[in-house]
Write a structure and sequence with these properties.
Elements lengths: L1 E4 L6 E5 L10 H9 L9 E4 L7 E5 L8 H17 L4 E5 L8 H16 L16 E5 L5 H22 L7 H12 L5 E5 L1 H7 L2 H7 L7 E7 L8 E12 L8 H4 L7 H16 L5 E10 L11 E2 L7 E2 L7 H14 L3 E8 L3 H7 L4 E5 L2 H14 L3 E3 L4 H6 L7 E2 L7 H10 L7 E5 L5 E2 L9 E2 L4 H10 L3
Parallel strand pairs: 1-6, 2-4, 2-5, 5-6, 9-10, 9-13, 12-16, 13-17, 14-15
Antiparallel strand pairs: 3-4, 7-8, 8-10, 11-12, 14-17, 18-19
Amino acid sequence: MFFIHSKEFEVKIYYVSEGNDLTFLNDEIKNYAKQVGFEGKANTSFTHLGPNSANLIVIGLGEEDKITTQSIRNAAFEAGKILDANRIKEATLVVKAQGEISEKSVGQCSVEAFLHSAYSFDNYKTKPQEKYVETIGILSNDCNQDAIDEAVDITKGNHIARDLVNIPSIDLYPETLANAAKETLEDLGVKVTIYDKKQIQDLGMKAFLAVAEGSDKDPRFIVMEYLPEGKDKKAITLVGKGLTYDSGGYAIKPAKAMDTMKSDMAGAASVIGALYSIAKQGLNKNVVGIVATCENMISGRAYKNGDIVGSMKGTTIEVGNTDAEGRLTLADAIYYAATKVNSESIIDIATLTGACIVALGTKIIGATTSNQELLEKLQDVAKLTGEKIWQLPIDDDFREIIKGEFGDIKNAVMGGGGASTAAAFLEHFTEGKSWVHLDIAGPAWADKPYGYIAEGGTGVPVKTLYNYVKRNQN
């Protein structure tokens, strides 16, 4: 799908708030809209398409004072579906500011949602669904071609993440994930270094290797460096959980909980997708992506409940639960980010805990932090991107709970507060760096479509990561 600024086609798309008097329509069509009951309510539409018609699509946004960027995305998504259902190849969106949302933002949110309306993961289908929409004109004074192209690049990053999450683990495993990162990013000027098992051993990443040991697929450690400011400047470091499959190990998951565990690398996917968008747009900010990727499987070599393992930091870890594996891989990855990368801040993104889903449901990211200002900046960006972030507590009580009896700390404890105890475990490896942990266990995967999100991987939080870096570029 292509987007061209100020290109006019025969079919026009309009957004209207509830109660709008539809002044852009002639009296005959206005009367027809009233006859069919169109009032501009949210998630409603009115069409006048076909021979001898006005060739228009009107999408309702609801009450003007309640319109959000999500309202715009939902409207554009609906318009895209209408175009596709009517096999319309070309159309023009007439962009106007809506409520407190600027014309530029309306245009960019619309471009994003049009692309989402055409997204499907049909790589494994013998007959992929045909797509009809080819070109959308964006008729706007403020949303110029650069703004349009930015929205396209951000959404492409989101779709890269979605695709990676949706690929089954028979095809996406540590080696192929690492290769995908290299193929996606290196042509954009991102240096991708891939460490094999021997090199990971040399780094002393004992916690990461303990999780990887049960699989016949060797682990990979991926470092992705986008350094437009030069190596001497500090970087925002993004650390993504990279479990390409999680059986739970000897704390084995029930079958129903295992069938979507290809998505346990959604954090890694979001880092790769965000770096694509950041590099494609040429943002002037150093960003480093870190991914420790492996499978958590069962074999005679696999680590077990009750084991005590080491770590790159030297901390010993009591393994209370082999299904709390993500925090073990992240421990070494975060410590690497804190000690081997010139990090000004560390943001880790992980499908980490079922406890976060219990607390916040499936559409909200849980967050903990060592730097309140950093988290609030991320939350501020997330309000515009629609990727909701809610802060969870982390304090000395949680830090005390994870202390070990036989080793230094425990990877899993009883007593509730699982999202916060997991975060307290990760904090131990940050070495005092400014840090935010984003638990995306809920919003990383959609069991069924909602809004403009298709079933499967969602690409959360690529948009937030991109926009945070953009706001902090030099």
